[in-house]
Amino acid sequence: MIQYESKTEFIxxxxxxxxxxxxxxxxxxxxxxxxxxKLGDIDIYQFEMERPGLAxxxxxxxxxxxxFTLYEEDVHxxxxxxxxxxxxxxxRLGKGRYFLEVEPGHFQKSREYKICADxxxxxxxxxxxxxxxxRSDANxxxxxxxxxxxxxxxxxxxxxxxxxxxxxxLALELRVPRQVxxxxxxxxxxxxxxxxxxxxxxxxxxxxxxxxxxxxxGDYYVRTECGxxxxxxxxxxxSFLLNQRKxxxxxxxxxxxxxxxxxxxxxxxxxQKIQLNKKSSNVVVGKSVKxxxxxxxxxxxxxxxxxxxxxxSAKGTVKxxxxxxxxxxxxxxxxxxxxKITVKPKFKKVCLYGYSNGGxxxxxxxxxxxxxxxxxxxxxxxxxxxxxxxNADGKTATAKFKCKNGRTHKLTMKASADGNKVKVIxxxxxxxxxxxxxxxxxxxxxxxxxxPSSHYYY
Length: 458
Prior knowledge:
Elements: E1 24-25, E2 31-35, E3 43-49, E4 53-61, E5 68-73, E6 79-81, E7 88-93, E8 96-102, E9 112-121, E10 139-140, E11 147-149, E12 158-164, E13 168-175, E14 185-191, E15 196-201, E16 207-209, E17 213-215, E18 218-226, E19 238-246, E20 253-254, E21 260-261, E22 275-276, E23 280-284, E24 288-290, E25 293-294, E26 301-304, E27 310-312, E28 317-320, E29 324-332, E30 335-344, E31 350-354, E32 360-368, E33 371-378, E34 381-390, E35 396-402, E36 408-415, E37 422-427, E38 445-450
Parallel strand pairs: 1-3, 10-12, 23-30
Antiparallel strand pairs: 2-9, 3-8, 4-7, 4-9, 5-6, 5-8, 11-19, 12-18, 13-16, 13-17, 13-19, 14-15, 14-18, 20-21, 22-25, 24-28, 26-29, 27-28, 29-30, 31-32, 32-33, 33-34, 34-35, 35-36, 36-37, 37-38
């Protein structure tokens, strides 16, 4: 039976919309409907941002298996990926045209879905305006004014430009949501030659302020980006302010706590109290982090509380070896300064895919310490929310389950260096295997590799 629908009854997809030139218009701020009309169907939608603003994009179907990719179009008609495969995106977008590509996987039972782009246009007087990913496109902002922005992806970078009219004291102030992971956001102040003047990474507390520096009149740039904690990125708003006050010879600089420091001409603001550049840091195993004892000018002795977890060089470079927690101590001038390093596994919250159709997936729901929860969907078997133990090396994990035949299956998971690829090895005497691409597989050991894109071809 064919049912005709009028525009007043139906908002959403119009076939055939499987190319960018035939993309269906996506009506903003309302729920649009679509369906997978055939196996391997691709649906593409387009929408216009009349001016810069915040877009919250989501979709769902009855199976809760819905993913899209967001693209932008440049002035020449070229298409560039913004978010990668996702079921939800919260991104600031500039004025222009954008595309959403929806592609179901094989073995998809649901044919109907809903997709929505909630758009809020924002003022440049308060918010970041995309695209500002390179210095030449930096947002021009005012001193002593709070601005709000966000990192749309882990690779996003935001630049802001400020003009300082006279010799001044400058300091960065930063706000992030309470209790976010440490070191997921870094903010840096540069001069016009892109020489770094000061920087800071967030902590679990919502507010921080750097110490003041003395700056001559001229142009300055603020850059925000993902911090050293590569396991996470801040998918939420941050706010910052470039604090400026007039320099007065013989005056006082102000420390981050608001305490006045007696002035001694120009040198006083540069006389920092002795402290480590980090009090704590989350680092993925195998990565390194550089610690610095700011304000120290003599010999510094570095020590790790557990060299099996992480070692530290004579210059303060911490090299991580296995998951766990370790305390790094810097000894200087008869005093000790400490930083807690938490070494995390290479596994991270992510959904990876097998083969080219997107129907098979390996989903890491959560990672905490040496444990993680995973789901695997394959043609002939699905296991949801299995508990897996992560080995001390941080890159290998194991899980066991019993199939309907009562046989024990062992899964060994091996993560790539960046955690964006996982090889799963299944060992079992049972012919019904989770990873098998056919109904029966009598090999005792088989494997399957999962990738970050459903469009990967072998």
